[in-house]
Each structure stands twice: as C-alpha cells, then as structure tokens.
Amino acid sequence: MRRRVVVTGMAGLSPIGNDWKLVEQALRDARSGIVRMPEWDQVEDLGTRLGAPVDFETPEGYPRKKTRGMGRVSLMSTRATELALEHAGLRDDDVITSGRTGVSHGSSAGSPPAMEVYARKLFVGRTTRGIGANDFLQFMNHTTSANIANFFGVRGRIIPTSSACTSGSQGIGYGCEAIRFGLQDVMLAGGAEELAEMDAAIFDVLYAASTRNDHPELTPRPFDAARDGIVVGEGAGCLVLEELDRALQRGAEIHAEIIGFATNCDGRHMTNPDPAGMEAVMRLGLEDAGIDADEVDYVNAHGTGTLTGDPAEASAAMNVYGPDTPISSLKGHIGHTLGACGALEAWITIEMMNAGWVAPTLNLTDVDERCAPLDYVMGEPRELPIDIAVSNNFAFGGVNTSLVFRRWSPDR
Fold first, then answer.
1. CA distance 193 to 141
2. What CA dihedral angle connects 192, 194, 199 and 200, to 10 degrees?
3. Residue tagged active-site, from 165, 176, 238, 371
4. Contacts of 313 (CB under 8 A, 6+ apart)
5. In the 8-state DSSP scheme, what is residue 157?
C-alpha cells in the first residue's frame, strides 16, 4: 500500500530573501535579485557579468568540527534544512537520529573554491602541498547531503542527487518515494547551489548566458521575444517530508501533500531540450498523481530564458495542460539557481498555493511567437484559487522532473 506524503516544514535561502515574508514582498513588488558581478570582470572573454547572489553568512554557534568539511553550498543547505526543521517542529525531535529519517538532497557540484585548490595545486603546480584534508569534503558531489546528515545526526538513508538543474526536484521526489514505500518516515529533501564564475562560464561558452550586463533588472526574460539567456544564481531549499499518519498523530501543521512525482530522461542529446521528453514527464507526473490535466490550477515553469529551452517547454505544456492553465516562471526574479531551483521553486509554489495568488514571470512583456499561446501570468500577481499545482524542471543530460502538489485539506 502506498503511503501518503505531506510537507510539514519548508524553508529557503534565495536571492530575494531568506524567509517567505521577504520573498513574498519581492515577488509582489516585482523586485529582482539579479546584480552585476564586478569581481567577474577579471575573467578574460567572459561575456556575462550577471549573477543572483544570496545574502548569507555562516550562523553563529555552528561548531568548527561540523563545518570544516563544508563549503558555502553545504553551509546554505544546512541552514535551510535547520530552518525547515524548526518550521516543522522537529529540530530537536528524536526521530531525526532514529534511523527513520533520511536525507535526499543535492547540487550540481560541490564548492567551486575547494575545486580550485585541487586544480591549481595538483594540475598547475604539480604538488599536493597546500591541499587541505577538508578540501575534497567541500567539493565532493554528495557534499550537501552528507554534511546535512552529519550536522543533524541523521542515521537513515542518504540519497545524493547531482543532476544539475533537477537536483532539488529529484531530491524532493526521491524523498517522497522513500516515505511512500515505507523505507523512511521523514525525509529532509531539497537542493542547493553556490554562485561562482565557473557556473556563469558554463552557459557563456554555450552562448546561453544573458549579456544584458548594464541592465540586470531587465534579465532574464523567460518566454519573452527579447530574451537572451540564463542568469545564474545561488541558494538552498529544503522541504521536510513526512508520512501523513505520523504527521497527524503529532499534530503537525501540514502545508501541502505531494500527490505526484515523475522523472525521466530524453535519451537524445546532452544539451538540446527535447519537447517529447518534457511532455512525457508532465504526463507521468499526472498519472502518478491520479489526476487529469484539467485538474491542474497552476504550473510553475522551469522557464530559464534560453532561446531553445523556452519554446520546447511551452510546446510540451500546451500539449499536456492546454492553453487555459496559468503558468509562470520564477527565474526572472531569482535567476537560475541550478541545483537549488527545484527546491526553491517547490517551496515558493506551495506558499503561493496556500496564499491564493501567483507571481508573474518578471520581465515577460512580449511573448515570443515561437512559444505556444499559453496563459502566461504577466505584469501583476494574479489572485488565483489553487487546489493542485505542478512544478517542472529540466536539466542537461535530458533529465526531466515534474512534482504535483495538492493544497492540504483534512477532509480527503
């Protein structure tokens, strides 16, 4: 029997705020977290100078013994998880160390500064002198999940997700599955990313990064005719997932139920988006949720602002949800936070669902004719009663995800 999974805690660190009150105000005020990064001017031939940083410092009281193996990405992951546990009322609960709680969390990669230590010393200097014992721990691919587990004493299963832009959404989905099938009772699920010029360079080399450097407030522009690419960002998001009966028994506040999750792979190209794969994962998500497409009230799009990705996603969304389902992307506000985006966008989607409104796609003023004629939320926030919301993400390697959330009601 498949167990029901609910969200009892959630938190995020984002370029527009580190709590829902600040994020909500930024979304309502059409305020962007995109800025020019002057420190990137030293990188020769880098076309983009834009990023979306988070205002974050290591919290006081974090012991050195716990943090010495953490880079910024793991520190943000740990803090977001701590805030989510506090939100769930589980920060000091024995279940965390019981073996019935696990971690399902990831990032595109570890901390870039720690990678640089190895690259400079070993491959340029041809020496190991100066490489610290903790440098690898900071940049290993499972650094966020391992450090979260170590910090909180988690003894259950660890599911590291390192699938670029679907790291966070896969973290949530795999965490949901672990509870559904009785493998765990609680999962700390999400994703994170640390901003570095390396991330900007990846998209710059692919001609997929925005170069509107003198007007950071006007980019990215998902689905817009004048879009010119991605703006990379950073952040961390965590959802505390819990088996329904356990949550009810302890009197937890329930923020949403996860009723559907799907992930698949295009199997066709490493970087070119595939509308067929996107459409398939959207349909699989609905099938897993046991609902029809016309029951979806809102779709939070991946919507990165690339020339090829946006039309592919719009085409898939049209084929699945039709022209009348409201859809918007958060990346105009927070940039593309890569491994964090699935978690941050899931968190914000749930908050908007419960508040009864959705944010517009910032900077979308003229829908590209190559993008299907969907009901794009533009200009102003839209008051919208939402019972079911979908959040979709897509990554290099042809990895696709779809999460389906339902507003919580004790009557069902």
1. 11
2. 120
3. 165
4. 273, 275, 278, 301, 302, 303, 392, 394
5. -
Q: Which residues pair with 383 in a beta bridge?
A: 357
Give 327's DSSP letter: E
Over residues 316-332, the pLDDT tens digits come to: 999 999 999 999 999 99
The one catalytic residue among 142, 302, 333, 341:
302
**239: enclosing H helix or E strand:** strand 235-243
Dmax over CA atoms of the chain, in Å, equals 65
Q: Is 302 a catalytic residue?
A: yes
Residue 288 one-letter amino acid:
D
* Integer Cα distance of 312 and 227 in angstroms: 15
Task: Establish whether 165 is a catalytic residue.
Answer: yes
Query: What would the pLDDT profile of 208-224 be if each residue is shown by its tens digit?
Result: 999 999 999 999 999 99
Q: How much helix, strand and coil, in percent to the nearest 5, is found in the chain?
A: 40, 20, 40
Active-site pick, 142, 333, 336, 341: 336
Query: What's the angle, vertex CA 19, arms to CA 236 and CA 36, rounded to 5?
Result: 65
Q: Which two tokens stand for residue 391?
A: 């959040």
